[in-house]
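I hope you will forgive my troubling you with a question about protein structure. The matter concerns a single protein, recorded as an amino acid sequence and a row of backbone structure tokens. Please examine both parts with care and let me know of anything in them that strikes you as inconsistent. Here, with my thanks, is the record as I have it:
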Amino acid sequence: MKLSQDEKRLIALFRLLPAQHQAEILTEAALKGMKNFAVYPWIERISNFKEILAEEISEEGQDPEILQLRLLGCLPDVDSYPWLSDMEVYMSEVVASCFPDELPQVILGNSYFDETNALALQDAIEFFGKEHRISVGPLGPNRFIVPVDELIAFIQDWRERVIAGLQRQIRKAHLDKGSDS
């Protein structure tokens, strides 16, 4: 796909900004997309997906707590991250406690901060694992450390799942609009 002149200009201007401003722009753009489209990768596989979509993009669906739940609904699959199998039922709680107010910025923002966020998540997983006596990671029983590079990959995969969910809904909306004509 060829970039338009506006897209090229947007990229050039974006590159001039410091990482924190880039993160703000990326987060704001994704949140605007979430005002109109679902992010759940599986939404179209359920029978009442139109009702869920309507609820998700309603005014109530824009509440910060609901936005966080919408993002948590896009957590990567356990199959991709073996360490996650021990934490799967707790992962939403771990992430929510690690990033109580910043989850949209962590998942939708700039990848420049992924290592910092992965370190925070690593600490939260270790703390949660010890507190609940869960073995996590490749280091064996009673070890609670997930390598930072795996957590960075986890955050990036999560981000891609959210964006892919938005893109699917946007494409579907354009197809539906075309079939209405």
